[in-house]
Design brief:
Distance between the termini of chain B: 39 Å
Strand content of chain B: over 45%
Shape of chain A: globular
Number of strands of chain B: 11
Largest sheet of chain A: 7 strands, mixed
Largest sheet of chain B: 6 strands, mixed
Number of helices of chain A: 0
Helix content of chain A: under 10%
Distance between the termini of chain A: 35 Å
Oligomer: heterodimer
Number of strands of chain A: 11
Radius of gyration of chain B: 13 Å
Largest interface: A-B, 21 and 20 residues
Order of helices and strands of chain A: EEEEEEEEEEE
Structural class of chain A: mainly beta
Strand content of chain A: over 45%
Shape of chain B: globular
Chain lengths: 113, 108
C-alpha cells in the first residue's frame, strides 16, 4: 500500500549511542522532512530535503545528520544520542514543492536513557 | 522561525457542541493548512486553503482563510467523540511552520 512508513515505531537507547531512524515513501514525492514533537513545543523541523542529494537545516538541526541518496528514503541519524533528544520523531513528504501539504508517517517514539 | 499563535491551547466540550479555533501570524501567507493528530499517530491533513477569504468545508469541518492572509479559523459543528485529538494550523514558507496545537476533548 502506498504511503510513508517510519521504522522503528519505538526505540530505547543509551546516551552516547548512535541511532538511525528510517523513513520510506512510495509516492515519489520530491520533498521530505523530519520533525520532532515535544510537549509545549509542537512540531519543530529538524532537516528537510528538496530532492535526492539536497538537504537543508531546519529549526533544530544540532545533533542530527541526514542523507538522501534515493528519493524514497530519508534516514535521520543521531550520531551521539543525548537525553534531550528523547522525543517523538515524524517524517513527512510533499510533492513538487514545499508549498504543498505534507503527509506524515506514524512517528518513532525515541527514549534515550 | 515563524511563529503561529494558535488558540485556544485546549478545549473541553460536551458532545454535540460546536468548536472554534484560530491561528494568527505576523506575516502574510498564501496557503493555510489544518491538520488533526490522533493519539499515537502522525498529523493528517483536514483542509487546505489557497485564497484569501476562501471558506472550505470537509464534512462537519469548515475552515476560512482570513482576508488579511495573516490568520485562519477552523470550526467543527456538532462535535462527536472521535473529534478528540490535537488540531494544528500550518503554513508553508521558506520552511514549513506549525502552530502549537489545540487539544480537543469531547465529553460524551
Amino acid at each position: 500500500d502506498a504511503g510513508i512508513t517510519q521504522s522503528p515505531r519505538y526505540k530505547i537507547t543509551e546516551t552516547g549511542r548512535q541511532v538511525t531512524l528510517m523513513c520510506h515513501q512510495t509516492w515519489s514525492h520530491s520533498y521530505m522532512f523530519w520533525y520532532r514533537q515535544d510537549l509545549g513545543h509542537g512540531l519543530r523541523l529538524i532537516y528537510y530535503s528538496a530532492a535526492a542529494d539536497i538537504t537543508d537545516k531546519g529549526e533544530v538541526p544540532d545533533g542530527y545528520v541526514v542523507s538522501r541518496s534515493k528519493t524514497e528514503n530519508f534516514p535521520l541519524t543521531l550520531e551521539s544520542a543525548t537525553r534531550s533528544q528523547t522525543s517523538v520523531y515524524f517524517c513527512a513528504s510533499s510533492e513538487m514543492n514545499s508549498n504543498q501539504p505534507q503527509h506524515f508517517g506514524d512517528g518513532t517514539r525515541l527514549s534515550i536513557l | 522561525g515563524q511563529q503561529l499563535n494558535q488558540s485556544p491551547q485546549s478545549m473541553f466540550i460536551q458532545e454535540g457542541e460546536d468548536v472554534s479555533m484560530n491561528c494568527t501570524s505576523s506575516s502574510i501567507f498564501n496557503t493555510w493548512l489544518w491538520y488533526k493528530q490522533d493519539p499515537g499517530e502522525g498529523p493528517v491533513l483536514l483542509i487546505a486553503l489557497y485564497k484569501a477569504g476562501e471558506l472550505t468545508s470537509n464534512g462537519r469541518l469548515t475552515a476560512q482563510f482570513g482576508i488579511t492572509r495573516k490568520d485562519s479559523f477552523l470550526n467543527i459543528s456538532a462535535s462527536i467523540p472521535s473529534d478528540v485529538g490535537i488540531y494544528f494550523c500550518a503554513v508553508p514558507g521558506n520552511q514549513f511552520y506549525f502552530g502549537t496545537g489545540t487539544s480537543l476533548t469531547v465529553i460524551p
